[in-house]
């Protein structure tokens, strides 16, 4: 019996003897367990603490490492999101894990062993807006991640400031959602405009889309950080997944 098993047994005995309430037992158990490899510690209780699955960033990990991580999550019966996964890597992993699924647009591999849940049991709708079609990869990463976290993604694409009438037509839909993920490259002005027109929290995602002076996303990042509109939070360049995590947290 390992340390985790002993800890769980001790907690359960305390509950049985009424020395510990079930609520306090839950608070202790939700930090356990994790599986340890030489290169990683795999969190099996993230969904209990956060309300969304364990997530893995694929670049920089070998095929063997990804195989062990996915196997660990699968054995635990948990959901899993693997971001920035190449399609060729997915096809190789699919042979080992037939239930592994993949979105080419989002560049996400995922296991869905059970339905994800929000903390209050309700499904929140979150809009995912893009300035242009070139932002779709980041947008799909955010949208699919939201769906795997038990949220409804409302996709509204290609409504940037170069033609604001395309955004104005969507304002009634934006009033129906709980939060807005706003994804744009170039000068990144869309987030400020959206935040100025709605009363919903806006999560701004700068993308690396644009010509030379956009500096691969630095220009829209700085523009979003310097927004004069209220209620804007900014995540890192191309970080659709991070935006989805924040949106899911503020709408739970």
Explain this structure to me?
There is one protein chain. This protein is an alpha/beta fold. The protein folds into 2 domains: 34-116, no CATH class; 125-250, Rossmann fold. 39% of the residues lie in helices and 18% in strands. The chain contains 11 helices and 11 strands. It has helices at 3-16, 22-29, 46-50, 63-75, 87-96, 136-148, 165-168, 171-174, 190-197, 218-225, 240-250; strands at residues 34-36, 41-43, 54-57, 80-83, 101-103, 108-111, 125-130, 152-156, 179-184, 202-206, 232-234. The strands form 3 sheets. It has a 5-stranded parallel sheet, sandwiched between helices. Helix 1 (3-16) packs antiparallel against helix 2 and helix 6 (136-148) runs parallel beside helix 11 (240-250). The model has no long low-confidence stretch (mean pLDDT 88).
Would you spell out the secondary-structure blueprint of this structure?
Blueprint: H1 3-16, H2 22-29, E1 34-36, E2 41-43, H3 46-50, E3 54-57, H4 63-75, E4 80-83, H5 87-96, E5 101-103, E6 108-111, E7 125-130, H6 136-148, E8 152-156, H7 165-168, H8 171-174, E9 179-184, H9 190-197, E10 202-206, H10 218-225, E11 232-234, H11 240-250
Parallel strand pairs: 3-4, 7-8, 7-9, 9-10, 10-11
Antiparallel strand pairs: 1-2, 4-6, 5-6
- Poorly predicted sequence stretches spanning 5 or more consecutive residues: none
Task: Assess the beta-strand content as a share of residues.
Answer: 15-25%
N-to-C order of helices and strands? HHEEHEHEHEEEHEHHEHEHEH
Q: How many beta-strand runs?
A: 11
Helix segment count? 11
What's the overall geometry? globular
Q: Cα-atom Rg, whole angstroms?
A: 20 Å
How would a crystallographer describe the biggest sheet? Answer: 5 strands, parallel
Strand order of the largest sheet: 8-7-9-10-11
